[in-house]
Design brief:
alpha+beta; Nucleotidyltransferase, domain 5; Actin, Chain A, domain 4; 4 domains; four-stranded mixed sheet; 15 helices; binds adenosine monophosphate
Length: 618
């Protein structure tokens, strides 16, 4: 039975199934929908308030949880029980964040393991998933209050560089908040959609999405063709944003007043007031030439020219990231057709000018940069609701995915930068006679040896019926769904025995990790190739030794004494070659053993066939 709801504000009937788009941001979050009448994407807000909900959670002494503006007001006075930037902890272990641990003024638990971080507030522990779910719950309630209808389904955006664990964590947070998360969408993809890019099937464009928020910066290069969005590259700095501009102003004022950082540490209220004034100045200078104000009887002033000098190094850093992103995408700046501006800090005129100058084109800044991602998420939810069947959205995997094969080699099933959703399968077999199980270890990374990559998961395929080595056919299938979440299945095709898992990596990769893994793969490419060749030669040699030995045992009676002696000598020489680091030597010895055994093997096979054929007519 279909249920309907009545919008009490307008008296109109509404469908119960409302899919909302959610931008779950590091600093601010918001919800957008497609307006049922105008069919335009709009951000939800109460009368006379902002659509932005600060991504801050405050736990008061009575155990109540407050989210948003009210929580943000407690940041300075109650730092231990007011949590900001929870998104930075999603899918991370303490090891991942320890270099930035001082950034968090609340207690992030260091339990010296690889396990996921937790945050301690009073005597309770919260995972980043719990924390994000509190924000999502608040967003859901606000949306329900404004829309006067239940909100159960959502599309949530994440940075393009989020890995599997971080996407899973975001999805789980949605689930905890009572939301059915229909799709996890990349933020730059959503921002492009909000500009209508990708809505036309014939369109082919290369897009740069420049996202400078309060605390983070990222640049993504996307390509849209045939209604498919591909992320060609991402780059950025997870600790660079508008807050750094505020800090630069604070330091400038401190210096002018003959004060130092120590004066801020000793007077927290003064520090906070000065920081707020700095932000006020920055925002004012986006639309005027001069800022003059006063604090505790002292005049504070800043000209636009001075402000621009202060922030030039920060802007330059973002330009360097743009260059790196272009390089990774193997593109020149002239190849970029569209530049999309995202994040509150792109309102700064110097930022817009510098980026426009760098790419040699005007930037797209007509959509509110704070809302653009959520608006795109709403458009995506409309597509999922079946209202725009022409559009298909695809992203790519940031790192290769594969399994460990003999000798610790990485066998890639889904290469890096494959479009998702994606599927791949390959057949493997057993090494030993009667082998009843097979260990499937799933790795992510670009190196040839699994030990240099990251292990995502491991499971055993058991119950393979006894068969000679090489006979079972184990098909391993990888499937990445549209959210970038991997599931792995192993099936023995002769017996139908199968086993599957959803890969939930134990810990996440930071974007630095990601970059390092890619860089390592380039730096070590030569060593890797040499090592892979050696491992492959050794594996081949071991297999040849096993089959030769079996063959001799079975056919001793049919071999001459001389054949036995030369074979044994060649086997010994090959055995010795395996212990050395020389793949060419292994190949030579394989060849020698083959040359000795091939003639008698053929002879014996021919005799066997002749015996089998005796008495039969062809
Ligand atoms: P976001 O993380 O995208 O919400 O961006 C928030 C950042 O944008 C904060 O650092 C704000 O101070 C900054 N911001 C917002 N409005 C303006 C403006 N008009 N000019 C300069 N910066 C702004």
């Amino acid at each position: 039975m279909a249920k309907i709801a009545i919008n009490i504000a307008t008296g109109s009937l509404q469908q119960e199934e409302m899919i909302v788009g959610i931008d779950l941001g590091t600093t601010n979050s918001l919800v957008a929908i497609i307006h049922p009448e105008t069919k335009q994407a709009v951000a939800l807000k109460e009368h006379n308030t902002s659509s932005l909900v600060p991504s801050v959670i405050h736990f008061d002494e009575n155990g109540n949880i407050v989210v948003g503006e009210e929580a943000k007001n407690q940041l300075i006075s109650q730092p231990q029980n007011t949590i900001f930037s929870a998104k930075r902890l999603m899918g991370k272990s303490y090891d991942d964040i320890k270099t930035n641990a001082s950034f968090f003024s609340y207690k992030v638990i260091d339990d010296n393991t690889d396990s996921l971080v937790k945050v301690q507030v009073g005597s309770k522990f919260y995972t980043p998933i719990d924390l994000s779910s509190f924000i999502l719950k608040e967003l859901k309630q606000r949306a329900e209050h404004i829309l006067k209808t239940p909100v159960n389904k959502a599309v949530i955006t994440v940075p393009a560089y989020f890995n599997d664990a971080q996407r899973q964590a975001t999805r789980d947070a949605g689930k905890l908040a009572g939301l059915d998360v229909l799709r996890i969408v990349n933020e730059p993809t959503a921002a492009s959609l909000a500009y209508g890019i990708g809505m036309n099937k014939e369109e082919e464009k290369t897009i740069a999405v420049y996202d400078l928020g309060g605390g983070t910066f990222d640049i993504s290069i996307l390509k849209i063709s045939n209604g498919v969005f591909e992320v060609l590259s991402t780059n950025g700095d997870t600790y660079l944003g508008g807050d750094d501009m505020d800090k630069a102003i604070v330091h400038y004022w401190l210096e002018k007043a003959g004060l130092t950082e120590a004066d801020l540490v000793s007077n927290k209220e003064f520090a906070q007031a000065l920081r707020l004034k700095a932000e006020e100045a920055k925002i004012a200078l986006s639309s005027q030439e001069e800022f003059i104000s006063e604090l505790n009887g002292d005049t504070l002033s800043l000209s636009k020219a001075q402000f621009e000098t202060l922030i030039q190094p920060l802007v330059d850093k973002t330009v360097t990231c743009c260059k790196n992103a272009l390089k990774d995408a193997e593109l020149k700046k002239q190849d970029i057709d569209v530049i999309v501006m995202v994040g509150g800090s792109t309102r700064v005129p110097l930022v817009k000018q510098s980026i426009s100058n760098f790419f040699g084109k005007p930037v797209n800044d007509s959509v509110n940069p704070d809302e653009v991602v959520a608006l795109g998420a709403a458009i995506q939810s409309d597509i999922l609701a079946g209202n725009n069947k022409d559009v298909l959205l695809l992203d790519v995997t940031p790192l290769s995915l594969g399994i460990e094969t003999m000798g610790g080699l990485m066998d890639v099933l889904i290469p890096r930068n494959s479009k998702i959703p994606s599927k791949a399968s390959r057949q493997y077999t057993t090494q030993k006679d009667g082998q009843g199980g097979m260990r499937i270890s799933v790795f992510q990374g670009e190196r040839d040896m699994v030990k240099d990559n990251r292990r995502l998961a491991e499971f055993n395929l058991t119950g393979i019926p006894g068969m000679p080595a090489g006979l079972p056919k184990v098909e391993v299938s990888f499937m990445i769904n549209a959210d970038g979440i991997l599931s792995v299945k192993a099936k023995e095709l002769r017996s139908g025995v199968e086993q599957s898992i959803d890969v939930k990596s134990q810990y996440g990769l930071t974007d630095e990790d990601l970059e390092k893994m890619l860089l390592d793969s380039i730096t070590h490419a030569k060593d890797d190739i040499a090592l892979r060749a050696l491992v492959e030669a050794r594996t081949e040699a071991e297999q040849l030794l096993t089959t030769t030995e079996k063959f001799i045992q079975k056919n001793t009676a049919l071999l001459s004494k001389e054949e036995m002696i030369t074979t044994a000598a060649a086997m010994q020489a090959l055995q010795l070659a395996i212990t050395m680091e020389d793949k060419d030597l292994v190949h030579t010895k394989i060849e020698e053993l083959n040359n000795i055994s091939r003639p008698y093997a053929e002879r014996i096979m021919d005799e066997a066939i002749a015996v089998a054929m005796k008495g039969r007519t062809v």
